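Design request, tokens follow.
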């Protein structure tokens, strides 16, 4: 197991707030314990950013510092939000809102619309393409299917960048955007589309954000209501925030600064949708007091994969490149990335299928293999090659797991069997939960052996097999679990869109692979014109294509294969060239070296100070603390308890036992007085650290892990008095006298 991946499927809930921090590296722990003020986490691929921020929320909740209902964690996909909710549940922090920007805004809009506007909220338009087509027809503009899709994307971009129809042509010129049609025509279609929506009382997904922003701007009472509800904000994938989303976030925050953002400018790949890394890169400028933590320990990929990823961004240029993160692999060495040139596309697909079949034969699960390409139209030849090779596959971006017909049918069957219990004859011979599930699902198409070939029958079997494997994992994690328990687990997973793994090779575009990872990744079709794509004309567009390839490279844990073909079809002219991005990386190609001004950023922690924190006080001194090392043997500490003690558990202790007992007795009384658990005053490990250090000043006390500014202000005087020899009764008596 690594710090970032491969966590158990059903882990035990940590016993305490301190236990939430177990297993985090020093930088991740810094993220988890930085619970106040603005925090910016620059997190490279595979460095455990989701782990860090979910543990941050869970630690705050379990320590009593954050109220679950006051936290809003925002990300960009339902899958990512569901994963975050699942992790928080496993950490004992249920009740935290983890949503996409659109989902959070829609809930607020539905709640406040009657009060702010009156009546019912207009109906949400599921698919805007049809209405855009009608708008184009009314403008007497003919659009083919591809143009219709591209014009729809232009309208979405205009809305998230807050560009009105009349300003669209000027915005295209200003941003050097490659419009799919005459900008004046798109402006006309855009205006007509908006009029059609008004006429029919419908809104689209972008309107959800726009209308929420408008209500929060115009109605200060409603804005105050939202701000009372949410006190702490966490934003994942912050490099993908659009101007409109940033405006909404600003309105949620008001004049507060309890904000934690996480992102990586090197993974900015959605600028065509209006996303910009500027908000991430300018965070320290907007928030001078921010703590900046850089995560560069890559727990996902081998040193060989990481070396290629670093080399790829080492040739980048532009502002994002100036802030690139130099990853450091934490894994054992693995095979070198393989580069393969093929004569034509069918040969490339067949060669890829053969290598995949070999990997599966060598023990790599099919579900841990992915084929990634630049555009979806490239998938067909790989689908055919895998089918011909008898290798199961699944298309990424297809129907959600829990929405598949066979999964819904299986859920109904399992729920019925759970209700019937011993009265269901199907379960007569089934011993144990997995056997019961296999018996029920055998009526829906599951068999011990998969059907031959691919297609709809194989897809259905793979879905049912995923449920069987989930039941087996669930029973191992929770011995004695019943069919009813499994049904409840499935319901929770469906609500969180936390699907089990389907065992088939994943075929996906590079864009849709963001946020995912596999043991083996095949990056295919890496030729000029495809990577970078032919319509990437400007330097900025080309650099985004480089970052897209970087995202593809960093999806691989162990095996990485890169390939290209010299012609499209057999016998065709071999006029293609390998992608320029591979120059200096693949064997035999000319090295370009790093671009000027693209020096990598190393990991670590930077703290900004507010005016009241300036100087040489305890807060400033703590801000300069580096990675924790054992004060006895000098070893770098990563365990939460060891970091509090500033020594390894097995190194000699010089704790003052009598002092520890006095601190323990004092803590019990103070905890009872304030009506909170004892660990909310100080944890046992923090008391041990104090009894070992015996601090004589506020500065020395502040330097002990677990003694933050808030606790220093609240309990520091009493603790120092006890350390100076005062009895518990004397210290508590003084406190009573002062009150």
């Amino acid at each position: 197991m690594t710090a970032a991946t491969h966590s158990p499927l059903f882990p035990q809930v940590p016993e305490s707030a301190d236990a939430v921090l177990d297993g985090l590296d020093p930088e991740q722990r810094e993220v988890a314990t930085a619970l106040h003020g603005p925090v910016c986490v620059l997190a490279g691929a595979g460095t455990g950013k989701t782990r860090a921020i979910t543990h941050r929320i869970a630690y705050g909740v379990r320590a009593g510092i954050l109220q679950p209902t006051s936290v809003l964690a925002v990300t960009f996909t339902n899958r990512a939000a569901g994963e975050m909710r699942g992790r928080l549940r496993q950490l004992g922090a249920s009740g935290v809102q983890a949503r996409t920007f659109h989902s959070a805004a829609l809930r607020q809009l539905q709640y406040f619309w009657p009060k702010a506007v009156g009546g019912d909220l207009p109906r949400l338009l599921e698919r805007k393409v049809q209405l855009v087509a009608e708008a184009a027809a009314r403008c007497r503009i003919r659009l083919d299917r591809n143009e219709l899709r591209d014009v729809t994307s232009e309208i979405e971009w205009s809305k998230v960048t807050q560009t009105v129809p009349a300003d669209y042509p000027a915005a295209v010129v200003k941003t050097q955007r490659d419009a799919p049609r005459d900008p004046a025509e798109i402006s006309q279609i855009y205006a007509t589309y908006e009029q059609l929506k008004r006429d029919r009382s419908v809104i689209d997904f972008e309107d959800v954000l726009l209308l929420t922003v408008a209500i929060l701007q115009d109605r200060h009472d409603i804005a105050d209501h939202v701000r009372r509800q949410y006190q702490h904000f966490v934003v994942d994938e912050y490099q993908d925030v659009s101007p409109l989303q940033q405006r909404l976030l600003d309105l949620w925050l008001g004049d507060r600064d309890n904000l934690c953002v996480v992102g990586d400018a090197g993974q900015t790949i959605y600028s065509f949708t209006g996303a910009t890394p500027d908000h991430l890169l300018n965070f320290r400028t907007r928030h001078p007091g921010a703590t900046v933590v850089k995560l560069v320990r890559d727990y996902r990929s081998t040193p060989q994969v990481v070396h290629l990823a670093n080399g790829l961004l080492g040739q980048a240029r532009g502002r994002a490149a100036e802030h690139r993160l130099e990853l450091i692999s934490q894994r054992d060495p693995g095979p070198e990335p393989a580069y393969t040139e093929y004569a034509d596309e069918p040969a490339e697909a067949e060669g890829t299928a053969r290598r995949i079949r070999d990997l599966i034969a060598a023990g790599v699960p099919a579900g841990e293999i992915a084929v990634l390409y630049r555009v979806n139209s490239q998938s067909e030849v790989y689908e055919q090659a895998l089918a011909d090779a008898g290798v199961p596959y699944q298309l990424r971006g297809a129907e959600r797991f829990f929405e598949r017909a066979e999964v819904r049918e299986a859920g109904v069957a399992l729920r019925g069997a759970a209700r019937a219990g011993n009265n269901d004859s199907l379960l007569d011979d089934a011993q144990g939960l997995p056997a019961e599930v296999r018996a029920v699902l055998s009526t829906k198409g599951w068999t011990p052996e998969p059907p031959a070939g691919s297609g709809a029958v194989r897809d259905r079997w793979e879905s049912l097999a995923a449920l069987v494997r989930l039941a087996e994992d669930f029973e191992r994690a929770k011995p004695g679990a019943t069919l009813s328990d499994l049904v409840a687990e499935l319901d929770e997973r469906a609500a969180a869109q936390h699907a089990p793994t389907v065992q088939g090779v994943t075929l996906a575009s590079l864009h849709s692979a963001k946020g995912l990872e596999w043991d083996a990744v095949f990056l295919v079709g890496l030729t000029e014109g495809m990577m970078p794509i032919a319509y990437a004309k400007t330097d900025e567009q080309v650099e985004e294509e480089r970052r897209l390839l970087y995202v593809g490279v960093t999806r691989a844990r162990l095996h990485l294969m890169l390939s290209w073909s010299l012609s499209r079809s057999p016998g065709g002219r071999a006029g293609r060239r390998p992608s320029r991005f591979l120059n200096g990386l693949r064997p035999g190609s000319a090295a370009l070296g790093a671009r000027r001004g693209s020096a990598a950023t190393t990991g670590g922690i930077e703290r900004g100070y507010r005016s009241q924190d300036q100087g040489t006080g305890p807060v400033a001194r703590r801000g300069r603390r580096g990675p924790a090392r054992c004060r006895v043997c000098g070893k770098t500490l990563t365990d939460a308890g060891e970091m509090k003690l500033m020594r390894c558990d097995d190194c000699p202790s010089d704790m003052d036992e009598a002092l520890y007992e006095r601190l323990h007795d004092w803590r019990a009384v103070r905890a009872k007085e304030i009506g909170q658990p004892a660990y909310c005053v100080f944890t046992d490990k923090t008391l041990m650290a104090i009894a070992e250090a015996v601090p004589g000043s506020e500065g020395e006390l502040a330097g002990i892990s677990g003694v933050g500014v808030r606790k220093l202000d609240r309990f520091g005087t009493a603790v120092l008095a006890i350390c100076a020899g005062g009895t518990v009764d004397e210290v508590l008596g003084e406190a009573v006298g002062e009150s």
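Comment from the thread starter after seeing the answer: thanks! The chain has 30 helices and 17 strands.
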